[in-house]
Amino acid sequence: MLRIAVPNKGALSEAARDMLQEAGYLQRRDTKELVMMDPDNQVEFFYLRPRDIAVYVGQGTLDIGLTGRDLFQDAQVGGSAEEIMALGFGRSTFRFAAPIGRFSSQAELAGKRIATSYDGLLEDYLATQSVKPEMIVHLDGAVESSVNLGVADAIADVVETGSTLKAAGMETFGEPIMQSEAIIIGQTGRRPEGLDVLLRRLQGVLVARRYVMIDYDVSRANLDRASAVTPGLESPTISPLQDENWVAVRSMVKKGDTNNVMDELYDLGARAILVSAIHAIRI
């Protein structure tokens, strides 16, 4: 049975639950549940603090974990665990910030105090930049307040919209430390039974979210041009119609391109253009 760690709360928790449900796995209904069995899929879910997931996976207590890339790297589990798959949600940027106009580059942080909730991640990054701060101040939250309260000269934190920083009179500076998103992690070099099925299902969810199915009728004279507009992942499906001069076409297109594709097809003479959602897929 595959043992999977899932965030029990926070920004990643709800999105992780939705994705796993779309992939066909049972998920808890009560947020107080810490363990849940899915016997039909031979999976057992453990709901843990996102920061702890990399530790459990790295030590081999659990097989697989769903966490953020920033949290995974901050856990400093060495080579015992590795990123297996990016999941496309929970995107954020880890950056330096300070009161407006105070700093312009990371190099200026030498000898300064930096507050963060991600000590390990920050230490590793500063080592690659040959920047030695006076100290790294660990805070579990409200990092933005540390400068105004005199605890630090700058901060390093996860930035999503930047509105919180702006409200605190701060701005980001220098290059981003890292780009983060939700990821699947596992023990390095180990492929437990059930992992390939999980990854295949999650990949199917990602594709289904990005694509829609488009169906339309088009004359054979315009088929080549229409097929060029909707090439699909491999090639479109072509079916004959009762009128031998026309065919029905079915293909996958990117969701964001849908209306432009429909307009192009209509201009080529295609008719009965229908778009439908894809709920599940295997590539």
From TrEMBL:
Xref: CDD domains: PBP2_HisGL1
Record-stated family: Belongs to the ATP phosphoribosyltransferase family. Long subfamily.
Source species taxonomy: Bacteria, Bacillati, Actinomycetota, Actinomycetes, Micrococcales
Name of protein: ATP phosphoribosyltransferase
Regulation of this protein's activity per its record: Feedback inhibited by histidine.
All residue ranges annotated as the ATP phosphoribosyltransferase catalytic domain in the record: 49-203
Gene3D superfamilies, per the entry: 3.30.70.120, Periplasmic binding protein-like II
Gene: hisG
EC numbers on record: 2.4.2.17
Pfam families, per the entry: HisG, HisG_C
Source organism of the structure: Citricoccus muralis
Catalytic activity: 1-(5-phospho-beta-D-ribosyl)-ATP + diphosphate = 5-phospho-alpha-D-ribose 1-diphosphate + ATP
NCBIfam families: hisG, HisG_C-term
Domain of life (superkingdom): Bacteria
